[in-house]
Design brief:
binds NADP nicotinamide-adenine-dinucleotide phosphate; alpha/beta
Length: about 260
Amino acid sequence: MKNMTVGIIGGTNGMGRWLADLLKAQGCHVHVTGRKTKMTSKDVVNICDVIVVAVPIAATAGVIGEVGPLMKQGQLLMDLTSLKKEPVALMLKHSEADVVGCHPLFGPSIKESAGHAIVLCRGRGDAWYACIKTLFEKTGYSVLEKTPDEHDRMMSIVQTLNHLNTVALGMAIAETGIPLGDVNQFFTPIFKTKMDIVEKVFTETPELYADIIAGNPDMENVLRSYERVVRNIRDLVTAGDGARLKKAMENTAKKLFG
Ligand SMILES: NC(=O)c1ccc[n+]([C@@H]2O[C@H](COP(=O)([O-])OP(=O)(O)OC[C@H]3O[C@@H](n4cnc5c(N)ncnc54)[C@H](OP(=O)(O)O)[C@@H]3O)[C@@H](O)[C@H]2O)c1
């Protein structure tokens, strides 16, 4: 692992930078590229054993299509994308290198590895896969070994439905027309916690959340189910009392929490 040379496309910021720091601390040689770096993706493919694609979701397919064909057997092509089915299929299609799909289930600002998990998807080859798995386990992360389908199905709940709910909350509050400054005077602790999340999703990297919602293969089902649930809640409360909603919530609690 110490002599491993890794090129991270999109390594100047965000998750790419997180991985660059982790690898450097393990003694790897790391080269990073971004759109403004002197070093290009072509340069790193020529000098690295491992190429990691860590660019925004919308740019991922293009970058894989560009670097994949330049890679040879014996090298590893890996990605950090929050979705796995399409990027893993594209890496397999566009290169003859070994392939590992990787999705860290956290953002770049975490302080320590303990308590955080990383999903790994086997693409092609065993040796590099074992090496990457060992690297993450050695540095204190737990590794979840899943297929791209299993990953994206779970992410349709953990990310797509979750972030959709946050986006809907923010848009519904804005639609009331009441200035947030006025609402803020009435903050409860739970509302404050939720509004902190709304602010993060709408203002930090809205493109990441939009692409996570729009790009999940199960997005249509998730949206349909969300609409159905909101309509059901409306029907349950139109009579003006909360008894039917309470019953529905009790039934849901049994399903969710036993
Ligand atoms: N942020 C998260 O919480 C998180 C968590 C897990 C996985 N991910 C995944 O990690 C990947 C990167 O997300 P991020 O949040 O780290 O993004 P980010 O903070 O915006 O960083 C993107 C990096 O890619 C570079 N870049 C952008 N467009 C590029 C292009 N066309 N060609 C080459 N480099 C390009 C950027 O550098 P320049 O701007 O200088 O070009 C930067 O270094 C995404 O696939 C995302 O799904 C994100």
